[in-house]
Amino acid sequence: MAFHPNGPHNGPDNRLQGALGHIRVLDLSRVLAGPWCSQNLADLGADIIKIERPGAGDDTRAWGPPYAPDAAGRPTTEAAYYLAANRGKRSLTVDIASEPGQALLRELVRHCDVVIENFKVGHLKRYGLDYDSLKAVRPDLVYCSITGFGQDGPYAHRAGYDFLIQGMGGLMSVTGERDDLPGGGPQKVGVALTDLMTGMYATVAVLAALTHRDRTGEGQHIDMALLDTQVAMLANVGSNYLNSGKRPTRWGNAHANIVPYQTFACSDGHIIVAAGNDGQYQKFVEAGGRPELARDPRFATNPARVQNRDVLVPLLADMVRERPRAEWIALLEAVGVPCGPINDLDEVFANEQVRARGMEIALPHPTAGQVKLVRSPMRMSATPATSDKAPPLLGEHTDDVLRDVLGKTDAEIAALREGGVV
């Protein structure tokens, strides 16, 4: 039988129908990696209590513009960056530097299954909010620490940022145009991929730790590091290096081992052509009216095309440039050559498949009227992910959490406010 020491978490924000409706999370994290993890858990039904600094809150509340507009189109103070990672949570403001604030959080931990934090190594120990201190309060606690470099090692004391880790962890060494071409050189990925992947790995680790707790009653400390995640997500590129000893190079939008497998400029935009075998390549050039490029022995096989890519690719580029993007996609789809557009975000959110899957959502919001967000991609038949609560205002749920979770009276809450604790 599953071990649930707290039982179901009752309260106005509880969603017992969700897969994690019985789980409550104390979220001490801010910016992106930690909030991305807790937002995943919120989408799955967990009750997330987001702890924020009084008067300021999560750093990303100030990371604008852009800000969500109100009904009249005027910008509010709700930064779009903050909105991206905080839906489905309850915001509680607490001064964790004060002893009463620390005592309040320890009291909350007794009612929580998980703590997520992304402070520098050792920072929370001074407040009695580190894993060992909180484990004494709740022995079966799952405590997830997210840092740049982990809890040990020579870099443990350093602050870690996504951009720095993309560089240190090798991602930028394989991202960007070839050094011998115009614009060549290392590039970061256009979104904070290392932060996001760390948040995803942290989500998996938290769920695994909860499963272990439910079987054994034992909690544990999860040590997540951005650098570890970045090295792990090198995937086949990292494996290729370890097993060959050869450093990979940047290929821009091309492929090291397949030609053509890259982007091409059409007369009105760009497409991706991914000809994974000789038959697809032959159909590609036939569709473009250049069948002789398949008969030429320099280009007839993929190894030959790789060897002669500097001759072939300019010829293909000239061929593709003669037609508009939509015509190329129609031609290549008709003959089974993998291809696709490079969409800007206008085109992404207007795409019929994206719209059919309901990826854009609008949620009611106290100051903006409504905010537009991206729905969780997790589709589950029995316990569907829910994205039904907008990211909270700063401290929006302070009274509710203190009253519903801790049973504080109105007089006690007023005293906490007067003392600057919340």
From TrEMBL:
Keywords: Transferase. GO terms for molecular function: CoA-transferase activity. The keyword Transmembrane does not apply. Transmembrane segments: none annotated. Signal peptide: none annotated. InterPro entries: CoA-transferase_III_domain, CoA-Trfase_fam_III, CoA-Trfase_III_dom3_sf, CoA-Trfase_III_dom_1_sf. SUPFAM superfamilies: CoA-transferase family III (CaiB/BaiF). Coiled coil: none annotated. The keyword Transmembrane helix does not apply. This is CoA transferase. The lineage of its organism: Bacteria, Pseudomonadati, Pseudomonadota, Betaproteobacteria, Burkholderiales.
